[in-house]
TrEMBL record:
Entry keyword set: Signal
Domain of life: Bacteria
Protein's name in the database: DUF4440 domain-containing protein
Ranges that cross the membrane: none
Organism this protein belongs to: Immundisolibacter cernigliae
Top-level taxonomy: Bacteria, Pseudomonadati, Pseudomonadota, Gammaproteobacteria, Immundisolibacterales
Length: 148
């Protein structure tokens, strides 16, 4: 079994655990989302995204859920590496968690390989009984420090 499938199985087990810590659940969902992006696994990625997703890339490109899925799975963007450098999950409300951090990202965009360090803010919410990402916004990290 690939590491991506193992991670997705872990996400399913953690998200169903009674009394689990919401911050740990969100981090597990975020890990599953990342694994699905790298594996180009549309069904797995789909399970981690809210219906009203708004995704803002570090270059300003803004996508809704359908456009994001089409671009990242078999489209113009193929993620090769997403390595968290720092992450912090904070509860905003009972059903909303704010995730902030920085990532090292390697992606092929329109056939061109790119690497970047990005800072991001993601918002996860409870939807249909599961944590799902509803918003993402990233920006290039300053050259002197990849963490916020």
């Amino acid at each position: 079994m690939s590491w991506a499938k193992r991670l997705i199985c872990l996400f399913i087990a953690v998200s169903g655990a009674a009394g689990a810590d919401p911050m740990q659940e969100v981090l597990a969902v975020d890990d599953a989302r990342t694994a699905a992006l790298i594996a180009a696994d549309r069904p797995a990625l789909d399970r981690t995204l809210a219906r009203e997703l708004r995704y803002v890339h570090s270059n300003g490109l803004t996508q809704d859920r359908a456009t994001y899925l089409d671009a990242t799975i078999g489209g113009t963007m193929q993620y090769r590496v997403i390595r968290p450098l720092q992450r912090q999950a904070r509860p905003i409300a009972e059903t909303v968690v704010l995730l902030t951090g920085s990532n090292h990202v390697e992606v092929v965009l329109n056939g061109r390989p790119l690497q970047a360090e990005v800072l991001y803010t993601a918002v996860y919410l409870q939807e249909d009984g599961a944590w799902k990402m509803t918003a993402w916004q990233s920006t290039p990290a300053p050259a002197e420090s990849p963490t916020p």
